[in-house]
Structure formats: structure tokens, C-alpha cells
Write a structure and sequence with these properties.
five-stranded antiparallel sheet
Length: 135
């Protein structure tokens, strides 16, 4: 079984700033994806997804708001097993823990457990063209 996808509070370091930026963090296990992540001199980050990776990213237009776009991240053949809500915070900052063993001051965290098809290897079609954004 694959590592669960995590959604939790996180921090992001910003060059030149002493304090990291706090925000929402989505955590994906890169072990099977084989993504190539490169940080450029201007601090931009490029993620290259090889054609053999079972993960895909798609930029889609929001049908309700034409001109607005969002990203979809796919795992080919994966199926959701469970969604675990470790704790969550109401707007009133009251902490609710659905699991009795969660610490009262634990930050909210969601885990999405999924399974992959057994021994499946993704092969890009021979006619597939790389989706490269020209500069």
C-alpha cells in the first residue's frame, strides 16, 4: 500500500526572510513517482514528471468561472480506501478530536489512504507529445 496523502498545516522557507511562511501543506510520497524537483537560481521550483510516472497533473478551466484555472493531480489506477480526519478546528478555534487518543492541541490533519493496482507500470503512448510550456 502506498503512503497516505497528507493535508496539514505547514511552513515554507522564503529566501531572505527569517521566518518561514505558514500555510496549508499537501504531502505526496515521491518514492514511486520519481519526480525531478529542481530549484532555480531565482528560487522558482520546477517539477518534472517523467512519462513513466503513474502521477499526472492537469490544468483545467473552472466551468463556473471562465478564465480561472485549477490544478488536478492524478494517480493512475489508485482507489481511495479511507479518509482519516485526525482533528479539525472550528472557526471559533475549538479543537474537536474525533479520535479519543488525539492530543487536544494537535494541529488539524487529514490523511487519504489509497491503493495502487498491483504491478502496474505506466507507459506513455508512443504518440504522446511532452507538454512543455514555451518561453
Amino acid at each position: 500500500m502506498s503512503e497516505p496523502i497528507g493535508v496539514r498545516p505547514g511552513t515554507y522557507p522564503v529566501p531572505g526572510q527569517e521566518e518561514p511562511v505558514m500555510g496549508l501543506c499537501i504531502v505526496l510520497d515521491d518514492a514511486e513517482a520519481s519526480w525531478e524537483v529542481t530549484e532555480e537560481n531565482d528560487y522558482s521550483i520546477t517539477i518534472k514528471i517523467p512519462p513513466t510516472s503513474p502521477w499526472r497533473v492537469n490544468r483545467a478551466e473552472d466551468k463556473d468561472e471562465p478564465g480561472s484555472f485549477y490544478l488536478q493531480v492524478f494517480r493512475k489506477g489508485a482507489k481511495i480506501n479511507s479518509i482519516v480526519l485526525n482533528s479539525f478546528v472550528h472557526p471559533t478555534d475549538e479543537v474537536h478530536t474525533p479520535n479519543a487518543d488525539s492530543p487536544k492541541d494537535a494541529p488539524p490533519e487529514l490523511k487519504i489512504h489509497y491503493t495502487n493496482p498491483p504491478d502496474e507500470v505506466y507507459e506513455a503512448p508512443a504518440t504522446a507529445k511532452p507538454r512543455v510550456k514555451k518561453k
